[in-house]
C-alpha cells in the first residue's frame, strides 16, 4: 500500500465499524462517513482509526482500499475486535444504534505521523463517541490541542454521553455541529434555559468562544451561524431512501467549500445538496462519482425563496 507523505487537507478521527442492519452489513462510523464523502468530493482526507486483526477488520480494509480511501491511518489491534453496531430502524425510518463496547477504535494510539498531519491539515474532524474510552479520548485531546481548525460534530449516542468531556471539547472547538436535541442538551450542561434558537446560539458562542455553529433540522434543513451572521437553508426535496449518515455527508459537503473559503451561501448549498443526495441513496457510503452528485445537484436546485439570512449579499441572480 502506498504511504501518504504529503499532508492531507482534512484529517478525520474516531470510529470505523460495520453497521449490521437486518438486511446485511454496511461500512460506517460517523467520522469515517465524513472522510469517505470528502474523498468523493476530491478532498484529500486521512482517517485515523483502529481495526481488529480479524475477518471483519480485513473486510473493512478491502472496502476502504477498493473505494480509494487511504488506509494508512488505520491502526491494527491484536487484542480488540473490529467495531460493530447493531442497527435497526424505527417507524419513521430513523436508525437506532446499539454500539458494541471495548472494540479496536476505542483504543486509538497517538502517533507522531498523525500528530504532524493534524498540525498541518486545514481541518480536524471528530465526534463525541470516540471519547467513551480513555485511550482514544486521550489521543483525541492530544490531536485536538495541536490542530488549527477543530470541527466537532457532537453526534450524541446515548448512553455514551459525558458532560465534562463534551464541555472540554467545546472549549477547543472552532466549528460545532448539533441537531436541535443536542443543542438543548449542551445548553443544559451550561445551565442555560432554552428561550429561542438565536439567543441560545449566541450564548453557546460566547460561553465556549466558538464562532461557527451549524444546527441541523432534518426535513426542515439546516442553519449556519458564523459570528453574528446566519444562513438558514431548506432541505432539498427528495425521496428518502434512508437517513443513515445524512448529517455526516452534509458536513463533508460543507467542509469541501469551507476549507476553500467559499462564501456561506455556496457552502450551505453544497452541504444541503450532498446531504440530500446521500439520503436518497442507501447507506452513508454508497458508491458514486462526483459527476453523478453534480448532476443530482443541478436537478435539485436550492429554493432561494426559502433561504433565511441576515446578510444582504445573496449570490448574484438568486
Ligand atoms: O458512528 C456511530 C454511528 O453513526 C453512524 O456513523 C451514522 O451517523 C453509523 O454508521 C454508526 O453506527
TrEMBL record:
Q: Which GO terms describe its molecular function?
A: kinase activity
- Record-linked Pfam families: PfkB
Which keywords fit this entry according to its UniProt record?
Answer: Kinase, Transferase
This protein's record includes keyword Chloroplast: no
- Carbohydrate kinase PfkB domain ranges (all copies): 25-285
Keyword Metal-binding assigned to the entry: answer is no
The record ties this protein, via SUPFAM superfamilies, to: Ribokinase-like
The UniProt family comment states: Belongs to the carbohydrate kinase PfkB family.
List the protein's name: Fructokinase
Organism per entry:
Chishuiella changwenlii
